[in-house]
Design goal:
Layout: H1 2-8, H2 24-54, H3 60-71
Helix pairs in contact: 2-3
């Protein structure tokens, strides 16, 4: 049953070639860099949520609000 569900999620390769004006090597390098940025952003969001729910002490309110803004990808002004 699990294999049936997993097979639905497998990407399908298409034979359609899209001309972006960029060579394959450059596109591969950019895809790798963008993947790294995506991973870093996701890690920051998860860590921010963890801190958000575990803040204690005298700075609770300000740190709670700051980590909430970071986790929700809202701009933080004044930092």
């Amino acid at each position: 049953m699990a294999n049936a569900a997993a097979s639905v999620l497998k990407p399908v390769a298409h034979d359609v070639e899209v001309d972006t004006g960029l060579d394959a090597k450059y596109r591969g390098e950019m895809a790798e860099l963008l993947s790294q940025i995506l991973v870093s952003s996701y890690q920051l969001m998860i860590k921010s949520q963890i801190y958000h729910w575990n803040v204690v002490g005298p700075l609770f309110r300000s740190l709670h609000l700051l980590t909430e803004r970071i986790a929700l990808h809202r701009p933080v002004r004044g930092c």
